């Protein structure tokens, strides 16, 4: 019975996180922080300092300020088709995400925040390739796959069956050529009612939780104010905030997990006809205590409140903290964020009518 709870908890928890993180979009008014993945400098050594990284990613900066004006508000809609988590035994996680804090940190670095909940610097660090920040992939994903080896397959099966997706609409994206500034919006996709065809005709119902007007399916509150297209690369802009509400259910109960990814950045490679996208990547930071609060909803859903197994999971989540929730590092403070990186592919779809709202359940104390 305890083993079944371990599997169920891992499935519910990570399905929720993955759905949120990969398909998130940014909201206006966020602090802008560079997070390029390239730059000079080697790995921080025994002296304790992380190597600084210079920004090299293309694309406009996210955050406050108006995006491009599009009088018609028309533009292509992309829906998530598949998610990639960087699972494997050869450090695959190291390639998923972005260098959010502009450092290449090791377990000996002293210019990073302090471990959370009695954790070890060797747990939270070192970073991935070229300073990529992805503590989720390094520390939490292996535990989940140990408990539930087919989790990645099952998550993508949910998308293939039309259970959920998320959609990004870019207003007035041209059919060819560059677009220095675009306004892009995020929409949550609820149950399609059947398997998607992936041919541009799928009309996904829109979850009202991200809408300013619950009667208007186009009134998304989640924006990329300064997204852009350069060549075949779509770039969300940097320093945006992801907010997504994802339903989680068992046979007896249901709840809705609201998750926020701060200091996020998303890129993807558009097809020549701009009707699909591959090589998608998103990276950002979960605020540790906000994430724990949402995890406790899953604990209540599965009847695990007060179970030592669940308490241990919460401690592991806190110990995975490797960064400040604003994407910076501060050696005088305790880490209050968990970096995350995930990959994805998208395809052409349509926005449907407003669907039912996700339920809001209770949480463990």
Question: Could you list some keywords that capture this structure?
Answer:
single chain; 365 residues; alpha+beta; 8-stranded antiparallel beta barrel; two-stranded antiparallel ribbon; 13 strands; 20% helix; 27% strand; globular; disordered N terminus
Low-confidence stretches: 1-12, 14-47, 53-65
Per DSSP, what share of the residues sits in E-state strands of 2 or more residues? 25-35%
Shape: globular
Please report the distance between the alpha carbons of the first and last residues: 23 Å
Secondary-structure-derived class: alpha+beta
Mean pLDDT: 82
What is the element string, with H for helices and E for strands? HEEEHHHEEEEEEEEHHEE
Oligomer: single chain
Rg calculated over all Cα atoms: 20 Å
Query: How many domain regions?
Result: 1
Give a short account of the largest sheet. Answer: 8 strands, antiparallel, barrel
Care to count the β-strands? 13
Number of helical segments with 4 or more residues: 6
The helix fraction, in percent, is 10-25%
How are the SSEs placed, and which strands pair?
Blueprint: H1 2-22, E1 51-52, E2 77-84, E3 103-104, H2 121-124, H3 135-147, H4 151-160, E4 165-170, E5 179-189, E6 203-206, E7 223-230, E8 233-235, E9 240-249, E10 254-270, E11 276-287, H5 288-301, H6 308-319, E12 337-348, E13 350-354
Helix pairs in contact: 1-3, 5-6
How would you describe the overall organization of this protein?
Strand 7 and strand 8 form a beta hairpin. This protein has one domain. The radius of gyration is 20 Å and the shape is globular. Helix content is 20%, strand content 27%. The protein is of the alpha+beta class and 365 residues long.
